[in-house]
Amino acid sequence: MATNRIPQTYDRIVRMLEDAADGAHDHGAAIGLKQNTEAAIRADLEALAGKPAGPGNVPPATPGLKDKWNTARAAKTAATIAFGAVKQNGRALARACIGVLKPRLGDQWNSQWQMAGFANNSLAVPDNPMTMLQQFRSYFSANPTHEVASLNATSAHCHTAAEGISDAATASNASNVAYGNAKTAFAAGMEAGRTRLTGLRDELAQLLEDDDPLWHAFGFNMPSEQDTPEVPENLVATPGPAGSHTMYFDWDDAVRADSYRIIITNTATPPVELKNEIIHSESEVTYTDLPPGPIRATVSSRNSDGGESAPSDPVDGTVP
């Protein structure tokens, strides 16, 4: 008996919500669907996946929670890189300032360096030199004749660099918060989608017989069907860059599959098995440690109730 387990991954939830919304549009009124209507399903779908733009971009596209999470992740990465860059530039400026002052204060730390704010018995430049640059700013402001403009060892340059690090730190912290909020919202949207599909499945169970083909119209299996997952189709093996030992494998989602098994062998006689692994998330996997040369791959689908399907048609490829 097919159990119609609700998927966990984003792509499968979105596809199932789309099927469910189409089924509700075509058959919801006829079968008496009350709780999980097309409007309710599409609201959860559009919150998660967004809505494309209308003709001539009117109305404009509406980003979904996944889009917002991706945008926040990209912003977080950019802010982290920017923060690292201004810190690196600040360290270079701090080292230049130290070099300028060594003829005046000594090649090694001593009590004279306390005038420039070095109170820790060291001239080492920290990972984040903001405070050090602020100390140089004060020192050069009090001793303008010690500045060397050609090396940017000036109060003004130290002030600008310190402020740049402070601003970048603030932006990086804000991007981390925004990313966390977007991730939390996406997780909530995923759960809302799964809850909607669960409710629809339970409502359909009250309205349809177990062998009614209309289950398929809503993206579900007929409960009377066998629960063995379908054989995956369209397995593709794509080589990575030259010399990388990398291959990318992807295939179509299989109906009733909770996970997949991929088997990779070489093409020797008899073949030597290189991989035999269970893939628990998406219908794709990347390997970066395969030996170079020709390989052959198959994939089968699995679930805890119906067992494992037959393997897909084999696909050959060459590991770079």
Structural summary, described in words:
This protein is α+β, with helices and mostly antiparallel strands and 320 residues long. It is 45% helix and 14% strand. It contains six helices and eight strands, in the order H-H-H-H-H-H-E-E-E-E-E-E-E-E. The chain has helices spanning 10-31, 38-49, 65-105, 130-142, 155-207, 214-217; strands at 236-239, 247-250, 259-266, 273-279, 284-287, 293-303, 307-308, 315-319. Strands 3, 4, 6, 7 and 8 form a five-stranded antiparallel sheet that branches. A three-stranded antiparallel sheet has the order 1-2-5, with no helix packed on it. Helix 4 runs antiparallel to helix 5 (155-207). It starts with 9 loop residues before the first helix and ends with a strand.
Write a short abstract of this structure:
The protein is of the alpha+beta class and 320 residues long. It has helices at residues 10-31, 38-49, 65-105, 130-142, 155-207, 214-217, and strands spanning 236-239, 247-250, 259-266, 273-279, 284-287, 293-303, 307-308, 315-319. The model has no long low-confidence stretch (mean pLDDT 94).
Put simply, the count of helices is 6
Biggest β-sheet description? 5 strands, antiparallel
Beta-strand residue percentage = 5-15%
Specify the overall morphology. Answer: elongated
Class computed from helices, strands and strand pairing: alpha+beta
Rg, rounded, reads 30 Å
Distance between the termini: 44 Å
What would the average pLDDT be, to the nearest integer? 94
Order of helices and strands: HHHHHHEEEEEEEE
Fraction of helical residues: 40-55%
Low-confidence stretches: none
Count of distinct strands: 8
